[in-house]
Amino acid sequence: MSLDWIYYAISWILLTWHSAWDAIKVPVGSVLGTNWAWILAIIFLVVTVRVILFPVFVKQIKSQRAMQALQPKVKELQEKHKGDRETLQKEMMELYRKEKANPLMGCLPMFLQIPVFLGLFHVLRRLDPAKSNKTLYGWTVDQFNSASSAKIFTAPIAGKFGSTADELARLGANGTTVKIIAGILVLVMMGTTYLTSRQMILKTGWAEDPQQRMVQRLMLYGIPLSLLISGAIFPIGVIIYWVTNNLFTLGQQQWVLRKFPPLVTNQKPGSTAPRSPAQPAKAGGFLNRVKPAAQVPAKPAAPKVAGPKPGAKPTNPKKGRPAKRQG
């Protein structure tokens, strides 16, 4: 299956935004050695894609809430059909169908963004002045040459940490500068990828199922660490796209999670028990953190006075009582 339609679509969005920023005379290279028209074109490529996918993202959050609410029923089915995996799968699929919950919806926005990432990766990788066909995917020669020479902090957006000496020579770039800029951006990419996964897990809770919890840990730690290696082959422009996408995700998740708060908070193993319903926590504060409930001072209890035991002599006889006269 040809992916040319993706390359044409990504090129069209990228070139449209670049033309818009170029038309309002955004600085080309005079400010911090950066061609801001191309950098902003990549950033607004992210904005365009995320606006298009926003309804899917909201459906993802709603699906995760539905899956979270079904956890007690899923646990009951697991206990009921322990050892019978086939029956368990049928019962769970019937439960999801009945409750209109889709386990795959949680990964849909990410899967839909993969073609965009691959398309941008392919388009920016072609930005080599030695290419003979510069008008592929709707580009003009001037646009191709402009993008090939576009830089961020004097490092070309087509360069990468693992660029060879020949590639750097064709791009007119300094190898040390490219490695420094690309290395910093890769670290930022790893950090923001970790934060997006951590934000979602802390808000929706850790899964009780061991396999799902393993997937959560893989998302939280495995993917950011894998970027340390794969980031070396990403063009700088692609890393800018990834970092911008992560920052957009952080803001979008924060807004959606406030609008659709978690129904149940699963506690991570080793954490403290949740609050009782009688003492709800107050929401608010920075980043919607939980504030402790106000403590009402207890009234001092009245001192208890122990009564005399039956048949015992009074402990405090009345003083000053007149003596009995002798007859």
Features:
single chain, 327 residues, mainly alpha, two-stranded antiparallel sheet, 10 helices, 4 strands
How many extended strands? Answer: 4
Largest sheet: 2 strands, antiparallel
Helix % is: 55-70%
Q: Return the average pLDDT rounded to an integer.
A: 79
Per DSSP, the total helix count is 10
Order of helices and strands: HHHHHHEEHHHHEE
Query: How large a portion of the residues is in β-strands, by DSSP E?
Result: under 5%
Oligomer: single chain
Broad structural category? mainly alpha
Using the CA coordinates, give the radius of gyration. 33 Å
Shape: elongated
Q: How far is the first residue's CA from the last residue's CA?
A: 130 Å
